[in-house]
Prior knowledge:
The chain is an alpha+beta fold. It has 3 domains: 63 residues, no CATH class; 123 residues, no CATH class; 173 residues, no CATH class. The strands form 5 sheets. A 4-stranded mixed β-sheet has the order 8-9-10-11. A 3-stranded antiparallel β-sheet has the order 5-4-6. α2 crosses α4. The radius of gyration is 26 Å and the shape is flat. The two termini are 48 Å apart. The N terminus and C terminus are likely disordered.
Amino acid sequence: xSLIWRYSYCPVFQGxxxxxxxxxxxxxxxxxxxxxxxxxxxxSESMSLLNHRLMEECEKLSQNQSFRDAEQRYAFExxxxxxxxxxxxxxxxxxxxxxxxxxxxxxxxxLELCNLFRDSxxxxxxxxxxxxxxxxxxxxxxxxMQSIHHAxxxxxxxxxxxxxxxHKRGPDGLVHRDYSALSDFxxxxxxxxxxxxxxxxxxxxxxxxxxxLVGELIRECDNxxxxxxxxxxxxxxxxxxxxxxxxxxxxxxxxxSYGVTPLSDxxxxxxxEPLVYEFFDRFIEVGNDLLCIDVKRWATxxxxxxxxxxxxxxxxxxxxxxxxxxxQKADTEGQKQLKAVLSGRYERIRFVYxxxxxxxxxxxxxxxxxVDHTIHYLNLLQTDYQYYQPKNRxxxxxxxxxxxxxxxxxxxxLLNLLGVEKLPTKGKVS
Length: 430
């Protein structure tokens, strides 16, 4: 605040100095980190009176949104990390290994339960989603799932205190290396805001004109994130699941806007077999082709690139299995009538890895398809560049020099694969 401090001596400068909330909080985090080391006393003692006043205000802010003592803070931090580990372990062991494999083996009793974990209520109304899960008899009877049920979301109110949930401060004073480690204001280095990684945050180059599809999608996400996590916040280990759900939600909105209907689970099982359940998120028939689409949020600045690379490795196995299934059903004689009907159904099978997080990340900088045009890596959104002729505000006459306009639009190559003509992205999102 050195510049403000100098202004405070100016007779023209009158009144209190106001700081934006985010700036105020960031300053408070810095003061908290400084106060942890007694060697920093020389820094605090050499500050101006105005900065001392600021430090006092920051300490009040931190105290009002933190646990009353270090013991409570430590217990909370340990519980969050331990709950996160259990969430990962149970989901991997029960959901991904047991229940999904039950569906793939043809036990469709588990289909509704598995699809609940893809429900949009998971990020629009967490409490309603938890109630839906608990209402499922298979879920309610599973002790492992019950052991983590109340740990999936964190209540902002701890006892009779309202806590500002933050990423834990590491030994170096910065955000802890473990992204799942949380703390309160006093022990944090940055506010924990999972909505920033779950929902699109870009505003530049978005056309918010009523009826524009991209603008409507961004506006709808804004409305969701304003209310979704006001009371209950997802455990960091649950965020990857929610990211996938948000991605599918946005893609389904795009499909509906263009009148494209993906195959239902039952149709997929009839045309292929239950083994392919959740190999890909959506299966779509386009003429004589089958599109297998995996919706991702790949390698944004706040994501882990390693996870995206692991996904690519796993995808090769999925592609091979689907190709084997379709070739067996097309070439084998004497099988059931359903398999005979499938014979020769698809001329070509295309695999699409669709990134709904607009970014110039390594996976989407690859060429948009491979040599035989069957594997595609696409961004859902793509920047559309157009020149326009600006006009003089007063006279309304066109100016001499053109300007470049950039607008986010639905990727035209995706629309081409879906068999949709390139039309303006108009139409209400429903």
